[in-house]
Amino acid sequence: MPQPTPPASHQDLLDRPPFAHFATIRPDGAAQSGLTWFAWDGERARFSPTRTRQKIRNLEHEPAVSFHLDDPDNPYRTPEARGRVESTEPLRTRDHRVNHPGSDSDQPAAEAGR
Q1: Is 25 helix (H, G, I), strand (E, B) or coil?
Q2: CA dist., res. 18 & res. 47, Å (int)
Q3: Exposure string over 59-77, b if 16+ CB within 10 A, otherwise e
Q4: What is the tens place of the pLDDT at every residue in 14-51?
Q5: What are the structural domain ranges in the chain?
Q6: pLDDT tens column, 59-105
Q7: Longest Cα separation, the chain
Q8: What is the pTM of this model?
Q9: Rounded to an integer, what distance in angstroms lies between the CA atom of residue 16 and that of residue 9?
């Protein structure tokens, strides 16, 4: 099955800094959503939740995720993606960075394939 490609009309949201609403499923089945840093590498979204947070435990239990981006200029323009996390390895070991102020790049990279 071919992988979906983000529409060109929303590429600017993938290129701009750098928050996404990131939703996971808790072990008790409840949804958990919150803002997190992310980067788009042209193929995958990479997130940087803190290793000790509930999100990582959620992902280790159930890798299904959903995330959406907000357009600060148009609140009705919000692309959403759903998928499964492929890895929760620390960023440095995977040679990928989610750059944000104060980043030490040792945060885990929750990678959602497209």
Answers
A1: strand
A2: 10
A3: beeebebbbebbeeeeeee
A4: 887 678 899 999 999 999 999 888 888 888 888 877 77
A5: 8-113
A6: 999 999 999 998 888 989 888 989 999 888 765 544 444 444 444 44
A7: 39
A8: 0.71
A9: 13
